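Task: sequence design from structure.
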């Protein structure tokens, strides 16, 4: 796997060795569709391809340089990789980070942009069906704020079997608690786990057996 630097090595270690997204808790046939929103270099999609060999995987990475890196890493792995951001349509403006994958959302009319859409558009592009068993992972550098308040987005979240979201505190999401509360209320039929630090929160939800 092609890695850009130490940050990406730590990310790969977290996904594969630490199982930060709880992938190994699920049987190999648990999901029919996996959505990797904020695919970065492709480590999450790679792990999912190994653990869930029959699942259809659709990954979204907006930054052109990072998208090219992910495309190399995911070649021949049956991952549908799209260059698109989870953001207010029609475009997202991006700011390059210190390394090739540490990107974030920048001010409007930045030099780098990519097509963007809310979660319901990403679900349509992935051809998500009502009968699909969906695993949704979102790590989108603050764009998780786009999940708040949209009726179509709430429907997409409730359609999932499992959700893994990394919430980033910053200009786009000034406070974590309201976002966590909104997600918990939206996913009222889910078993919820939240791990918080000063600037991040890892939000995990899985649909209850009785739901």
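Answer:
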């Amino acid at each position: 796997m092609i890695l850009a630097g130490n940050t990406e090595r730590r990310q790969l270690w977290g996904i594969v060795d630490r199982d930060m997204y709880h992938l190994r808790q699920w049987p190999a046939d648990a999901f029919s569709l996996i959505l990797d929103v904020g695919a970065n270099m492709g480590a999450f999609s790679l792990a999912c391809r190994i653990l869930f060999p029959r699942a259809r995987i659709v990954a979204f990475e907006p930054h052109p340089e990072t998208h090219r890196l992910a495309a190399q890493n995911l070649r021949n792995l049956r991952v549908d990789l799209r260059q698109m951001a989870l953001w207010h349509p029609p475009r997202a403006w991006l700011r390059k980070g210190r390394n090739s994958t540490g990107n974030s959302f920048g001010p409007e009319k930045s030099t780098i942009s990519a097509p963007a859409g809310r979660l319901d558009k990403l679900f349509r592009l992935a051809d998500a069906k009502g009968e699909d068993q969906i695993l949704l992972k979102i790590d989108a550098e603050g764009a998780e704020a786009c999940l708040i308040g949209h009726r179509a987005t709430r429907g997409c979240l409730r359609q999932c079997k499992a959700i893994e979201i990394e919430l980033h505190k910053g200009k786009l999401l000034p406070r974590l608690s309201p976002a966590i509360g909104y997600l918990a209320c939206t996913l009222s039929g889910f078993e919820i786990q939240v791990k918080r630090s000063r600037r991040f929160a890892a939000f995990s939800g899985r649909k209850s057996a009785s739901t």
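Residues 169 and 176 are 6 Å apart (CA to CA).
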